[in-house]
Amino acid sequence: MLSQIPLGICLIGADEQIQWANPVLCDQLGITNGDLENAPFGELPMQAAADQGNDIYRPMHRPQLRLRASMATVEGGLKIVVFTDVSDLVSDYDGYVNLLREAARTDADTGLLTTVSVYRELFAQLARSQRYGNTLAIIRIRIDGLQREEIGREQSEKALRDLGIKLADCVRNIDYAGRLSEYEFLIVLPETDVNGATALIEKIEGILDTTQVQTQSGETVNCGIRYGFAQWTGAEDASTLLDKAAA
Questions:
Q1: If you placed Cys at 117, which of 108, 113, 127, 164 could pair as Cys (CB 3.0 to 4.6 Å)?
Q2: Where are the domains of the chain?
Q3: Which CATH superfamily hosts domain 106-244?
Q4: Nearest-5° angle of CA 114, CA 119, CA 123?
Q5: Surface-to-core class of residue 162, CB atoms within 10 Å of its CB (0-12 exposed, 13-18 middle, 19+ buried)
């Protein structure tokens, strides 16, 4: 009867060796029944995937599968282990985890990287440049106009959101744009020198500088944007580089 159940099943003796296994388990592990005969349970060709849940295993010969192992003791001191294929569930779980991770990296107001995330990318790219000697530049963008008392919070948030969307469209896929502070953005530019940073600022100016905001009295004003940039020369740490790029 156990052979007909559509789950991977094996019986383990007191010596932790497999005494019997059904064909489903052989198929799940991608091996033959002969490979399982008297094999130690701990030497089965699978690896724990603890990051995807307790008792989840990844078969080495069928790495696309995820198996959940459930163990129980039966008569005579034997142990029965049942392997359930949870590949679809784990795939959904991974998708949710990745979605949550991405959400945690994204600033809710602007759609750019959060302050913590953009700092992390700056440190990572600076370490990469220090190791390999690659060029690196940064741009700081400060929005002074939104700090005016006559601009309401709602209008300020809308303007920041518009600026974030426009800025994201300006940068390359390899660049990192994030919110450095409430009214300031940072762009980290790997493999970029001063000329490249200057060219990007010119491009950004033509797009961001047209963004306007409405005051509480109904007047439409410019956002008042300032730009600063710096290239890593081989000596600066992250703090010094940021100071050099102060807008």
A1: 113
A2: 2-92, 106-244
A3: Reverse transcriptase/Diguanylate cyclase domain (3.30.70.270)
A4: 150
A5: middle
